[in-house]
Specification:
single chain; alpha+beta; Calcium-transporting ATPase, cytoplasmic transduction domain A; 7-stranded antiparallel beta sheet; 7 strands; transmembrane helix; magnesium; transmembrane
């Protein structure tokens, strides 16, 4: 029902998109215009293929610039996507029908699993802490808040009092250890919703920017 505990990969731009981005640079637009003008003037003056030499030279130089820039940007985007994938990958100790933990891939976590966590670990899914001691989580990747947030385990006595027991996916446990119950995985986590929303938002048009 909830799917795999993984997050949408960053969108990689196509080669066509990367090529077109080169023309966001006014210098490249000027070079293209200069090449076309040079070709037209050369043909009119020389009235022979010799008139194409100067304009063609500019076009070749522009072509090389675009190929190099687009290739470098494509490689960078692929590397970034791989780094994001590696940073999300982790093994998690989980209790499943036993008092002993088993180690599984974080992507295989299910809602209802109880995980074991400790300082230095990234929270693999949205959880609620059921046991813990001196737990502090850094949630800056999600909230922008630079300070760690102290967490307390939820109990029958405090669950209605607004106790800070929730642990969000991608937050970092900077202190303490304990156990937590998985409430949401993958796209259903706060991090997953933020990632999907960020990827679906398109850049504002020039008209929208002026209206703002």
């Amino acid at each position: 029902m909830f799917g795999q505990n993984s997050f949408p990969p960053p969108k990689i731009k196509t080669i066509t998109e990367l090529i077109m981005e080169n023309f966001d640079d006014p210098i490249n637009v000027v070079l293209l215009g200069a090449a076309l003008v040079s070709v037209v003037i050369g043909l009119i003056k020389e009235k022979s293929p010799k008139g194409l030499i100067e304009g063609t030279s500019i076009m070749i130089a522009l072509f090389i610039i675009i190929v190099v820039n687009s290739g470098n940007n494509y490689i960078s985007e692929r590397r970034l996507a791989n780094l994001v994938k590696l940073s999300d990958a982790q093994e998690v100790a989980v209790y499943r029908g036993s008092t002993e933990t088993v180690t599984i891939d974080g992507a295989d976590l299910l809602v209802g699993d109880i995980i074991q966590f400790e300082a230095g670990m990234k929270v693999p899914a949205d959880c609620i802490m059921v046991e813990g001691q001196d737990v502090v989580c850094l949630e800056s990747e999600l909230t922008g808040e630079p300070d760690g947030v102290e967490k307390e385990p939820v109990t029958e006595d405090n669950y209605n009092s607004g106790v800070m027991a929730t642990m969000m996916a991608k937050s970092l446990v900077t202190q303490g250890f304990g156990k937590a119950l998985v409430l949401a995985v993958g796209n259903y986590t706060v991090a997953g919703v933020i990632t999907e929303k960020t990827m679906s938002e398109s850049e504002p048009t020039l008209l929208q920017q002026k209206l703002e």
